[in-house]
Amino acid sequence: MISQTTLGLAVAAVALMGAALPAGAMTLDEAKAAGKVRIGIQADNCPWGCLSTTGEAQGFDAAVGRAFAKSLGLEAEFVPLAVANRIPALTANRVDMLIASVGITAERAKSVQFSHPYAANTLYVTAAKTADLPDAAALAGVSVGVPRSAPMDTILTKEAPSADIRRFDDDAANIQALLSGQVQAVGSNQFYIQRLDKASAGTYENKFKIGQLYQGVATRLGESDWNTALNGFLKSYIGSEGYNASHAEWLQVPTTDLPATIDGVSFTVSQ
């Protein structure tokens, strides 16, 4: 169990590490020579990615990262990142890849290379059960929290232009804003409700669905070595005993079929 105190410490760690990380991304051959791969991960967003009280990376993304590193005979070195800093950290060469709950979108595919998807993630608007918010139109004049630059931000900015959108640095801050009354609703993923129930049982509910995302591993554009290695790994890993066990342990929802294609996105580097 990751406590609110631990989440707060994780957020502070993310801020410090994001500012201090030197550029150090490697090619696949360089990573093999070094014996490690540097993987960007979220520190505050369990069950996807989070830090234990001792600073160890946990969550489904961490499990996928360790399995990938092991398949290459490498050590996984995890770098905690805030939501808005994920892609900038990758493009600035601070990490070799992102396994950080990065939803695959055509817009993001202009900046990063996605692997085939490895998991699904449903997005909602979540609020107190007493709130009458049946659809996006009902959000007019309502304060709605979103993680800055996340898909919930993009979707609700477009679909609820009359809402009072308030942006927070990460998922933990977004959840805390709802719990503390800073906002009346939040753009959430499918696991927010579990975390909200742990903090205030029976108070909140998902009001309506705003999107369906699929998570992919992100690498830099043109890096065919990492992209090829990741797609080969995912082809054998998804559906395996290890994948199913980690999915059950962390996500605790049934596995689902993942799409072979997504409009506007290529899962392989063009040669």
From TrEMBL:
InterPro entries: Bact_solute-bind_prot3 (IPR051455), Solute-binding_3/MltF_N (IPR001638). Residues 1-25 form the signal peptide. Keywords: Signal, Transport. It comes from the Bacteria. Gene3D superfamilies: Periplasmic binding protein-like II (3.40.190.10). GO terms for biological process: amino acid transport. GO terms for cellular component: extracellular region; outer membrane-bounded periplasmic space. Residues 36-254 form the Solute-binding protein family 3/N-terminal domain. SMART domains: PBPb. Belongs to the bacterial solute-binding protein 3 family. This is Polar amino acid transport system substrate-binding protein. The lineage of its organism: Bacteria, Pseudomonadati, Pseudomonadota, Alphaproteobacteria, Hyphomicrobiales.
